[in-house]
Every structure is written in C-alpha cells, then in structure tokens.
Design goal:
Elements (H helix, E strand, L loop, with lengths): L1 H25 L18 H6 L2 H14 L4 E8 L2 E12 L4 E2 L6 E2 L5 H13 L31 H5 L20 H9 L16 H15 L3 H10 L23 E4 L2 E4 L18 E2 L1 H12 L15 H7 L4 E6 L12 E5 L4 E5 L4 E9 L2 E8 L4 E7 L7 H15 L10 H13 L16 H4 L2 H15 L2 E4 L3 E4 L2 E8 L3 E8 L7 E9 L3
Antiparallel strand pairs: 1-2, 1-13, 2-3, 4-7, 5-6, 8-9, 9-10, 10-11, 11-12, 12-13, 14-16, 15-16, 16-17, 17-18
Helix pairs in contact: 3-11, 4-7, 4-8
Length: 526
C-alpha cells in the first residue's frame, strides 16, 4: 500500500510540473519589437528651407564669378525631392547657350559611386563576394608582383575603398578614359608599380575603379556602361544620363573650358570608348535634374524602415555604401566656411567620401574633376538634405562652397536631425523604473532587471544614491519624455524643484529585454 501511495504522489508531482511547464510556454511574454523609425519633429521644415533659396543663389553665383566658371548648375534635394535648382552662365561660350537644370555635364569621379553600386548589386545577386581576390575575375592580376612577400592579394573591397596599394593617380588617370580593355590588360601585364602593400592605407586610385568596371563586365556579361544604364539609371528615370559625349544633343552638352592667361580655353572632350573600362572611374555625363533622382534614392535609404524595398539596389546596400570603410584623415583645426573651427574626421566608403564633424554632423560626398569640368554632391542623411553643383571649368572646386550652402540651410531653417521615438519597451521600462525610485522597493523581486544587474549594482548603494538625489531635488515637478538612443537604450529627465535628474538605462538582448545598466545623475537647472 505504501508503495502504491508513493507512486501516486510522484505521478501527481510530475503532472503538476508538466502543467506548470505548459502554462509557462503558453504565457511566454513576447514584447512588441516593432521598429520605430526616426523622423523630423518640425512639420514646417520645408517652408523654412525655402527661405534659404535666395541666399543659396547668391552664394553659388559669387563662387562662379570668383572662380571664372563659364557656367554653373546646382540643385537642392530635400526629403527625396529635387526642390530647387539654379543656373548661371553658358554651356557653350561661342554659341551663348545658357546653362539649364537639364544641361548635361561630365561629372567625372562622381561616376565612382555608380560603379560601386553596380558591384553591390552583383554581390546581392550572389554573383561575387567583396572579399574575393580580384584575380578571380581578371586573371591578369594573378601575376602581379607585390611590394612585400606578405602582401595579401588585392580584393574587390580593396578596389572599392582605394586600398589596393596603387599610387594616387590624378591627373594621370584622367587621360586614360579612351583606353580599351586590351590596353588596360597590356598595362597590367607590364606590372603595376605599388606605393603600398594592399590593405594598409588609403590612396586615391582611378586604376582601381577601372578594374571594377572590368569586373562588372566580366560578371554581368554586359559592358559595364550598359549594365549600369539598365540596372541603375533607367529605374531612376535618368534617361539622358550617359557616358559618351557624342550621344548627347548638342544644345544640351556642356563644353569644358580651362581658365588660362585671363581667358577661357576650350578643352578637348574625352571619349568613353565602347570597349574600355576606364570610364567606370569618371566618364559619366548627367544633369542636375537627373542626378537629383540619384541623390534622392541615396537619401531615401535613411532611416532604416519597413517600407517596400523596390529600388534598383537594396536600401541596406545603399547604407553600406555610406559606411566609413577606410579611414583617411583627422583635422582638429578644420575651419568651416563661416570661420568657426570644428574638428573633422574623414574616411572613404564605397565610391563615396564620409566626414563627421565636432558637432556630430555626418556628410556623404564625392567630387569630380576632369579637364574642362568640376563637380560635387554632398548629402546629410540625418538631416534629409543634399546639394549638388556642376561647372564647366577644369577642376572647378565645390567642396567648401557646398559645405557653406548646407550650413546656410541648417542655420536659416533651424534644422534638427531626425529624432528616434522611444520603442514601446523603452517606455514601459521607464514607467516601471519611475515607480520604484527612489526607494527601490521590491526591485529585486520585480522581474525588471537582468541577472547581472544587482551583482553589479548592490541594492544598498542604489537606494542611497537615489534617495540623496531625490532629497536634493525637492518636490518632483514632472517626468520628461524618453529620449531614445536606439530601440533598447535611452534616458529621461526627472524635473525637481531644486535640481533635475537624468536617468539613463540600457536593456539586455533577452526577450523580453530587461534592464542591464542604469545610472542617475544630477543636472543643474538651466
């Protein structure tokens, strides 16, 4: 009898445990992980930006006159649209053809990001890997003699980021546009002279981009120009953008000039040969109207979001193009056009340049320069704005003036970057924290904190710190909104009668996320 009773008891315990396990499985808490997308807080930002347009006009016109530009065209892109254009001077001095926003200028090295975008599209389609040795696609590179015995083979990523070890080749590279692929392979066969082993330094290389053009042709089975036209230009409605100047209507083509001996001297336009890859580094011809579509596509990649992803390449790949892959500079004494000193650091991305300043502003840009032409585009993804400018004078400088224009827009419109709204779990944990402060009553039993929290933060110390600050603050006036740094980290302010307090916390990667780190500190009243 005692034996049977023991069996019954054990069975009952097993059933009870099984029921508890099932109940736990059925009631597992899954937090709302819907991604909150950053957005602009000011609904009138476009109207405020418009106030800057007359000032922008004057800035560009002065810049054109000061630098002897025969003609200039510029545009402003905001929130995915070309919202303003301006023009000054002539595309053809002899025929007095006025510049318009549809005039077609050679944009030189601004072509490079189209090349890297094509590479990423082929990567996304599984047709190549960025860390593949380039010789897999250009066998002639297999026989390169590297400067050191321990040098790695040049990869596609090295070529995309000016890290192949080739020497800086401006302006030599400018004169190679018309070379055929046969001539390019013969050049490689004569052995390339390196300035560095691959992978250790940034050095601007047009040759590296010519080789990418060859890779695009090899992998796609199409001329790189045709591949880019079909897969990038046509989907972005860039129907007149091209590579060969002979394909452009004469009344739309910007002629190039050099300012020499106090007069304009027309430059010979360089052909983009049909069977050559050098144009991948700088032969594209486009207008402000059509290049604005390309800029809008880049800006539309930010912030990450859940909208339909139906562009010519994935939005994530566009954002990857903006990533600082190869650091190339730090200037603690950089002076902005208005004279203020603000340190900047810079890097090269994929066919694009990256710069971040001491105020936390990030810029994505690329310039272009060829005999007869100069250009630049610069965008600020966090602010949703960008500018582009073309001129038909040899190596027309635009880097400083485009910074000045963006600075002007931000100041006149009072622009702020996008703000990330707090996720539901951040709001929930904030409200739960507020309820236990300052006494931390039952905090260890609350289930709000990750397993590391109390071993890292003894409860007596937490109570002492919070009580002292709350006593110093006096009466609590309000609890301010949560300021999110990302989906699982942020801070909020508790406004007191005498002082304010900032509470910061970050959540764990668990499901649901728990508080793993917490800090509270005094903020002086403003």
């Amino acid at each position: 009898m005692r034996k049977y009773l023991l069996i019954i008891i054990i069975g009952a315990i097993a059933v009870s445990c099984n029921q508890q396990n099932n109940s736990t499985a059925e009631t597992k808490i899954v937090y709302d992980s819907a991604y909150k997308t950053a957005d602009f807080a000011d609904p009138d930002r476009m109207e405020k930006i418009k106030r800057a347009f007359p000032v922008i006009d004057s800035i560009y016109k002065k810049h054109a006159l000061d630098n002897h530009f025969p003609g200039i065209a510029f545009g402003v892109v905001v929130d995915g649209k070309l919202v303003y254009t301006g023009n000054y001077g002539y595309t053809d001095i002899d025929k007095k053809i006025a510049v318009s926003s549809s005039s077609l200028f050679r944009i030189a090295s601004m072509s490079k990001s189209f090349t890297t975008m094509a590479i990423l599209k082929l990567r996304d389609e599984g047709k190549l890997n960025l860390d593949d040795p380039a010789y897999l696609y250009i066998p002639e590179l297999k026989n390169l003699k590297y400067p050191t015995a321990d040098a790695p083979a040049i990869t596609i990523r090295h070529l995309m980021t000016h890290g192949a070890g080739f020497p800086e080749d401006n302006p030599w590279g400018d004169r190679q546009l018309a070379d055929t692929d046969k001539e390019l392979m013969e050049f490689i066969g004569r052995k390339i002279t390196f300035s560095n082993p691959p992978g250790i330094a940034f050095e601007y290389s047009n040759l590296g981009f010519a080789l990418q053009g060859k890779i695009i042709t090899k992998v796609s089975g199409m001329r790189y120009q045709d591949y880019i036209k079909k897969n990038i230009l046509e989907p972005l409605a860039m129907k007149f953008t091209t590579y060969e100047y002979a394909d452009v209507a004469p009344d739309k083509l910007a002629h190039g000039y050099r300012w020499l001996n106090e007069k304009w001297n027309e430059e010979i336009l360089l052909h983009d040969t049909p069977d050559g890859s050098w144009g991948a580094m700088g032969s594209m011809i486009s207008s402000i109207e059509e290049f604005g579509n390309y800029m809008a596509f880049h800006l539309a990649a930010w912030p990450p979001n859940n909208a339909k992803d139906d562009g010519p390449v994935k939005r994530s790949s566009v954002r990857e193009m903006h990533h600082p892959w190869r650091w190339n500079g730090f200037n603690p004494n950089f002076k902005f056009p208005d004279g203020r000193t603000c340190a900047v650091t810079s890097a090269y991305c994929y066919g694009l340049g990256w710069m971040s300043d001491c105020e936390g502003k990030t810029y994505i840009a690329h310039s272009g320069g060829l005999p007869g032409f100069g250009s630049q585009w610069r965008i600020m993804p966090d602010y949703g704005i960008g500018v582009v400018a073309f001129a038909n004078r040899t190596y027309s400088p635009f880097g400083t003036v485009n910074l000045q224009v963006l600075d002007t827009i931000i100041k006149i419109a009072g622009l702020q970057p996008r703000q990330l709204p707090p996720s539901k779990i951040l709001e929930q944990r904030k409200n739960e924290l507020v309820k236990i402060l300052p006494n931390w009553n039952n905090a260890e039993q609350s289930g709000l904190f990750a397993e590391n929290f109390f071993p890292d933060n003894p409860i007596d110390s937490l109570k002492k710190e919070a009580k002292e600050l709350f006593a110093k603050a006096g009466s609590i006036i309000s609890v301010k909104e949560m300021k999110a740094q990302n989906q699982l980290r942020g801070s909020f302010i508790i406004e007191g009668e005498k002082i304010n307090m900032e509470v910061y916390f970050t959540l764990s990667p668990e499901n649901p996320p728990l508080i793993q780190e917490y800090h509270i500190k005094e903020l002086k009243k403003e």
